[in-house]
DNA sequence: GGTCAAAATTGACTGTGTCAAAACTGCCCG
DNA sequence: CGGGCAGTTTTGACACAGTCAATTTTGACC
């Protein structure tokens, strides 16, 4: 089960190391993890696969190195919502966007209707050559919204 | 010349203090300043107005308090582009967006064609009640773009 | 299996921002 | 026009996220 991950790494010109495999598998099913969350998930448990893949030791610096290498290889993507440490996800290359709850910080992916970056053009590009439009929607998720606002007020 | 600022503060329910006036005036002509930049600008010089307004002492904590108070009063706005400390600006309430240079960090305002938040709706709001769409365009400014890319390639 | 560049670890360190308690000061009131 | 006090600011310690540089370890090719 680790074989595909190893090959994925090598096809991107990266060595297959236990640390890199661990970060990639730790991200499965845990989109938008912070570095600290990944660190805990990797250090305090095996990778949950039940197979031979036990977790390696992983230093903080090592984690940051891995995250940068994987980002540069476009195997993961990093987002930095205001007020949050950097978060990482496996969804890459589809130029999707994010919905963030102002209260609990929950993050939801939002498909990009255009699909490729930049999906949106500014009215005036001020001479920039733009390669990406990053969109973050802010609001309250269903759980955090006060009951009185669950339905839009009718005035 | 300080009178209007004082009144502005009071009309928003905030006391007019030397520190708050200094932050507001330090932001004039210096949009997208970081807290550190404001701190230096206020501590190391008078306010540049040439009038009686000399700068007060301002502690770091005091600066952060002021920035939070002014933000809550909607007198300033805070943005946090990925990879940058928080930045502050006086343009408020027009739901404008930002263009950021990946190389030098230069930030340009981009008018919002819709004008009021949220100017954009996600395809699926996942049950959130959305109040703002924050858009950041990423690219290279004219100064940072390599010469060969100054004109779009013609293939 | 040997070799060596690539990758990981170690430990100190920086920048940005926060907490809590004490001191100060605008501004209202008499 | 001076007292009083809630609202502000200062002080100093601290936390968090991330970075730097030097050393050690390791993956993968021969």
Automatic annotation (TrEMBL), chains A, B:
Highest taxon of the source?
Bacteria
Q: Which UniProt keywords are present, listed alphabetically?
A: Cytoplasm, DNA-binding, Iron, Metal-binding, Repressor, Transcription, Transcription regulation, Zinc
- Location within or outside the cell: Cytoplasm
Q: Which GO terms describe its cellular component?
A: cytoplasm
Coiled coil regions in record: none
Q: Name one GO molecular function term.
A: zinc ion binding
What is written in the cofactor note of this entry?
Binds 1 zinc ion per subunit.
Q: Which GO terms describe its biological process?
A: negative regulation of DNA-templated transcription; regulation of secondary metabolite biosynthetic process
Give the signal sequence positions: none
Q: State the family named in the UniProt similarity comment for this chain.
A: Belongs to the Fur family.
What's the protein here called?
A: Transcriptional repressor
Say which species the protein is native to.
Streptomyces diacarni
């Amino acid at each position: 089960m680790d074989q595909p991950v190893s090959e994925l790494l090598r096809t991107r010109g990266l060595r297959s190391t236990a640390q890199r495999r661990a970060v990639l598998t730790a991200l499965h099913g845990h989109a938008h993890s912070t570095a600290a969350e990944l660190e805990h998930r990797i250090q305090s448990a095996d990778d949950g696969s039940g197979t031979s893949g036990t977790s390696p030791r992983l230093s903080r610096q090592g984690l940051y190195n891995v995250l940068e290498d994987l980002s540069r290889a476009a195997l993961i993507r990093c987002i930095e919502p205001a007020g949050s440490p950097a978060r990482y996800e496996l969804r890459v290359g589809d130029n999707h966007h994010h919905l963030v709850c102002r209260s609990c910080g929950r993050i939801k992916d939002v498909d990009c209707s255009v699909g490729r970056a930049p999906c949106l053009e500014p009215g005036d590009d001020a001479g920039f050559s733009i390669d990406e439009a990053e969109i973050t929607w802010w609001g309250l998720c269903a759980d955090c919204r006060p009951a009185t606002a669950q339905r839009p007020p009718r005035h």
